From TrEMBL:
Superkingdom field: Eukaryota
Function of the protein: May modulate the Rho pathway signaling by providing a scaffold for the Lbc Rho guanine nucleotide exchange factor (ARHGEF1).
Protein name in UniProt: Alpha-catulin
Organism for this UniProt entry: Sousa chinensis
Keyword entries, A-Z: Cytoplasm, Cytoskeleton, Phosphoprotein
InterPro entries: Alpha-catenin/vinculin-like_sf, CTNNAL1, Vinculin/catenin
Length: 668
């Protein structure tokens, strides 16, 4: 659509140009047709939205057909075509059709999104209803039947929410969804053993307390998922979680830096209040019993220094408002740099304090001595031992919870903040549940199910301790500027080891001319994927090996086309190389499959097919060679060569698919 709208009217109308315009129009219409099919299928399954979706689908279809008609240049060279309306004679017609198309497609997408949200809510309601039955059941056989149903419902809910998590663009929401889903996944096993323990020991208070804790946590997690997908909090609540220190420092620095451009943009009172609020939050570190004396002293020293430097900045600022001279401007710049430096030093100190404390704790608790002791006192029925080790676990829990709060301040990104909050909640809740599970076992030392239940909760604790190592590594990566992507793209092949080539692909921003060339190559590649899809749709047997490999190659080529537009799942040079390697491998597999098919053909037909295969195989090998060739700092050159080769392979693929289809009909 963008190509058609930006098309220049005065462009020379060569046959090549006319053909290109026609192919773009056909590609749009074809894509709309596929989109409408999916929309209509959704409408048929959702009667309450059927009319709205169908109207939007009809509008989209009409717009697609209009664009195809206006770009149909096939009869333009005939004498009787003088009165034909085309993109050259009616540019506004294409623009109107494009607007209608985008509007109707957006409507379908929004309605389809409502369908997905309703599916998740419906699935959550089913899970909740079954949970209520599980809470009330007091017969073991009935429990087994209901839990089996509950398991199936949880699997469905996990699939729906997993798809939703992958679709979310907001990293903060994505992290919240991941945390809620992790709780539900772990709690499902806990719910099984906790409920079985309650059924086996119905008069045991600690067993009931343990079970109630699991149900409560699952209900909170289910509500959290609905809150994320519907984007609204129950009873109009607002997010009351306080801002982290690192976020506060970032906002404060942004505010003082505006003084370079505008001396009247901020008030002195606002900046003073911001710094006071920021430094007040450092009390989480200085008041913490586990912060080392050296870190505490240094944090207090840097806080006092930041306050003093703000006063210095304010006095220079007032002077600068009175008179505008070069020396005053220099003093103001120096004052801004000084306070920024102090705050950076404070950040380093806070990061060091939190990370060092967390690393020491994780190392110290890695042997899980207290958990082992609780299990032993349980099977021995030792109530005195239980009291002693329950107290030790509570102390451990408090230290870990406090450490998670400090880590949240220095996490550096919102998704990592969410992970810190999730870890804090997990230690808080699981710690209490381990104690209640241990108490149940101590009261019933010969109970196998009580022992199994305690094991499940201890495993959850050990798993969270292990997750802390990953969290620390990610926080360090962000702090040191080595931030990796927290959420991978599942559709991409996994990174391979020992790929020496990746080092050669350093970020290298192409100039505007290079970008234009890449965009042009990408567009041609996008059109070829459309041609390939047209050929694939002709085949009756969609599971045919040739079709399957062709479809995979077309899908990967389309991802490469999106990459040239700065869109789609391919985000880095590494992703690109992996995608190209897999694309070349699929091409070679397709060639083998076509070669096997050629054995069924007569000599002339076989020769014709082998000629096409002989074009494809060398192209795939050449693409593999391009991906393996180190080109120092020449990212554009490598990208140019890769897309050119991919385009040649796709052009050959289109020819092969068409030829195979014709020859297959002939054989039959």
């Amino acid at each position: 659509i963008t190509t058609l709208i930006n098309h220049k009217d005065n462009t020379k109308k060569s046959d090549k140009t006319l053909q290109a315009i026609q192919r773009v129009g056909q590609a749009v219409n074809l894509a709309v047709g596929r989109f409408v099919k999916v929309g209509e299928a959704i409408a048929n399954e959702n009667w309450d939205l059927k009319e709205e979706i169908n109207i939007a689908c009809i509008e989209a279809k009409q717009a697609g057909e209009t664009i195809a008609a206006l770009t149909d240049m096939s009869s333009l060279n005939r004498p009787e075509s003088d009165g034909q309306i085309t993109i050259f004679t009616d540019k506004t017609g294409v623009i109107k059709a494009a607007r209608l198309l985008l509007s109707s497609v957006t409507k379908v997408l929004l309605l389809a999104d409502r369908v997905v949200i309703k599916q998740i809510i419906r699935s959550r309601n089913k899970v909740l209803a079954t949970m209520e039955r599980l809470e009330k059941v007091n017969n073991f056989q009935e429990f087994v039947q209901i839990f089996s149903q509950f398991g199936n419902e949880m699997v469905e809910f996990a699939h729906l929410t997993g798809d939703r998590q992958n679709d979310l663009k907001d990293e903060k929401k994505k992290a919240k969804m991941a945390a809620a889903r992790a709780v539900l996944e772990k709690c499902t096993m806990m719910l099984l053993t906790a409920s079985k323990t309650c059924l086996r020991h119905p008069n045991c208070e600690s067993a009931h307390k343990n079970k109630e804790g699991v149900f409560d946590r699952m209900k909170v997690a289910l509500d959290k998922v609905i809150e994320i997908v519907t984007e609204c909090k129950p009873n109009g609540e607002t997010d009351i979680s306080s801002i982290s220190i690192f976020t506060g420092i970032k906002e404060f620095k942004m505010n003082i830096e505006t003084l370079r451009e505008n001396l009247y943009f901020q008030s002195k009172e606002t900046l003073s209040a911001m710094l006071d609020a920021l430094l007040e939050r450092t009390e989480d570190f200085t008041d913490c019993a586990y912060t080392s004396h050296e870190h505490r002293e240094r944090i207090l020293e840097l806080s006092a220094q930041a306050r003093m430097e703000l006063q210095q900045l304010i006095s220079v600022w007032i002077e600068a408002q009175r008179k505008k001279t070069k020396s005053i401007d220099e003093e103001l710049e120096l004052a801004i740099l000084k306070i920024s430096h102090s705050l950076n030093e404070l950040k380093k100190e806070l990061h060091s304090a939190a990370v060092q404390l967390a690393a020491d704790l994780v190392k110290y608790y890695a042997d899980h001595v207290v958990l082992k002791a609780l299990k032993l006192t349980g099977v021995e029925g030792n109530l005195e031992g239980l009291a002693e080790y329950a107290c030790k676990l509570s102390e451990q829990k408090e230290r870990l919870v406090e450490t998670c709060r400090l880590l949240r301040h220095v996490s550096g990104t919102e998704p990592l903040e969410i992970t810190c909050i999730h870890a804090e909640e997990t230690f808080q809740v699981t710690g209490q549940q381990i104690i209640s599970a241990a108490e149940t076992l101590t009261l019933h030392p010969s109970s196998k199910i009580a022992k199994e239940n305690l094991d499940v909760f201890c495993e959850a604790w050990e798993s969270q301790i292990s997750d802390m190592l990953t969290l620390l590594r990610e926080i360090n990566d962000v702090f040191e500027g080595r931030r990796g992507e927290k959420y991978g793209y599942l559709s991409l092949p996994k990174p391979m080891k020992n790929n020496a080539n990746l080092k050669s692909l350093k970020p290298d921003k192409p100039d505007s001319e290079e970008q234009a060339k890449i965009a042009k190559l990408g567009l041609k590649l996008g059109l070829l994927t459309s041609d390939a899809n047209c050929e694939i749709e002709k085949w009756e047997d969609q599971e045919n090996e040739v079709v399957r490999y062709g479809r995979n190659m077309s899908s990967m080529a389309y991802s490469l086309y999106l990459f040239t537009r700065g869109e789609g799942p391919i985000k880095t040079s590494q992703d690109l190389i992996h995608q190209l390697e897999v694309f070349a491998e699929e091409g070679l597999k397709l060639a083998s499959s076509v070669q096997a098919f050629s054995k069924q053909l007569k000599d002339d037909d076989k020769l014709m097919l082998l000629l096409e295969i002989n074009k494809l195989v060398p192209l795939c090998h050449q693409l593999q060679a391009v991906t393996k060739t180190p080109l120092q700092n020449q990212v554009f050159l490598k990208l140019d060569k890769s897309i050119t080769k991919t385009r040649c392979i796709m052009a050959t693929l289109v020819q092969l698919l068409s030829l195979c289809y014709k020859l297959l009909k002939k054989v039959r």
